[in-house]
Design goal:
With 260 residues, the chain is of the alpha/beta class. The protein is built from nine helices and 15 strands. The longest helix is centred in the N-terminal third of the chain and has 12 residues. The structure holds magnesium ion. Magnesium ion binds next to loops.
C-alpha cells in the first residue's frame, strides 16, 4: 500500500516521561523525508498543544503545534461544530479551558448558564465542581467528556484519569456523556485525518495501547502498528476482546523498514 500519512501516539510510543524512545526521532524524520504527513495524538489534556509540540521539538522531533491533536483540541472542535461560541461549564485544568477559549467557546462560572457540561482529567476536582456539574445537568446541559481513560501512567505508578470525574458526575446525576471525544473515538480520527489530508486507507498508526490506539486505527481502516515500548505487553495479543494489530514492533524505530 502507499502511505501518505502517519499517526503516532505520544506517551509510551514516542517518549516515556522525558525520555525519547531510542530511534523515534530518526523514524519520524525518515517518514517525513519520504513525503508522509505526520501527526501526533494524545488523550492527555494536562498540557497545551504548544507544550507537546515544544517537548517533541526539544527531544529532536521538530513539530509545529498544528501537528499535535489532543483530546482538548478535539473537544473544542466538537463543541464548535455543535454550536459555535457556545457556553460551557468545565471540569478540567487550565490547558483544556484555554483550548476551548481559543475556539471561541465561553467557559462560564454559573453552571445554570451552560449549554454543555465538559468533563476532563482534573487533578483539582472537588465537591464544588461536582455540585456545579450536577446543577448544569439539572438545567439541561449536554454532557461531554474528553477521554475514556481510567488511569494515567506517571513516573511511580498511576493516577486517576478522566473516567473518575465522569463516574462521579454519572453517580450523582445518572447522566452519561453523549460523546467522549479522545481516542478511540471517530472525532479524534476526523481531527487527525483533516490535518493529514488523506483517506484512512493511506494512513498508518502506531501506539502502545490496543484498546485505544490500535482499536481506533483498525475501526477507521488504517494500517496499525503495535509498539512494545509502552503500557501493553505482547501477551495481551492473546486476549480476544482486544483488536489485533497489523504489525507488532519492538519500537517505532522499526516502522520505516515496514512501509516499503
Ligand atoms: Mg500511549
Amino acid at each position: 500500500m502507499t502511505y501518505r500519512g502517519f499517526i503516532f501516539d505520544l506517551d509510551g510510543t514516542i517518549y516515556r516521561g522525558e525520555r525519547l524512545i531510542p530511534g523515534a526521532d530518526r523514524a519520524v524524520a525518515e517518514l517525513r523525508r519520504r513525503g508522509l504527513r505526520v501527526v501526533f495524538v494524545t488523550n492527555k489534556p494536562l498540557s497545551s498543544r504548544a507544550e507537546y509540540a515544544a517537548k517533541l521539538t526539544r527531544l529532536g522531533i521538530p513539530t509545529p503545534v498544528e501537528d499535535v491533536i489532543s483530546s482538548s483540541f478535539v473537544m473544542a472542535r466538537y463543541l464548535h461544530e455543535q454550536e459555535p461560541g457556545t457556553r460551557v461549564y468545565c471540569i478540567g485544568e487550565a490547558p483544556l479551558i484555554e483550548e476551548l477559549r481559543q475556539m471561541g467557546i465561553q467557559v462560564v462560572d454559573d453552571p445554570r448558564q451552560a449549554r454543555f457540561l465538559v468533563v476532563g482529567f482534573d487533578r483539582t476536582f472537588d465537591y464544588q465542581k461536582l455540585t456545579g456539574a450536577m446543577l448544569a445537568i439539572r438545567a439541561g446541559a449536554r454532557f461531554v467528556a474528553t477521554n475514556p481513560d481510567r488511569t494515567c501512567p506517571v513516573e511511580d505508578g498511576e493516577i486517576p484519569d478522566c473516567a473518575g470525574m465522569v463516574g462521579a458526575v454519572t453517580g450523582v446525576t445518572g447522566a452519561v456523556p453523549e460523546a467522549v471525544v479522545g481516542k478511540p473515538s471517530p472525532y479524534m480520527v476526523a481531527a487527525a485525518l483533516d490535518r493529514l489530508g488523506c483517506p484512512p486507507s493511506q494512513v498508518g498508526i502506531a501506539g502502545d495501547r490496543l484498546e485505544t490506539d490500535i482499536a481506533m486505527g483498525a475501526a477507521a481502516g488504517m494500517r496499525t502498528f503495535f509498539v512494545l515500548t509502552g503500557g501493553d505487553r505482547l501477551e495481551q495479543l492473546a486476549d480476544d476482546r482486544l483488536p489485533k494489530p497489523d504489525h507488532v514492533v519492538q519500537s517505532v524505530a522499526e516502522i520505516p523498514d515496514l512501509l516499503d
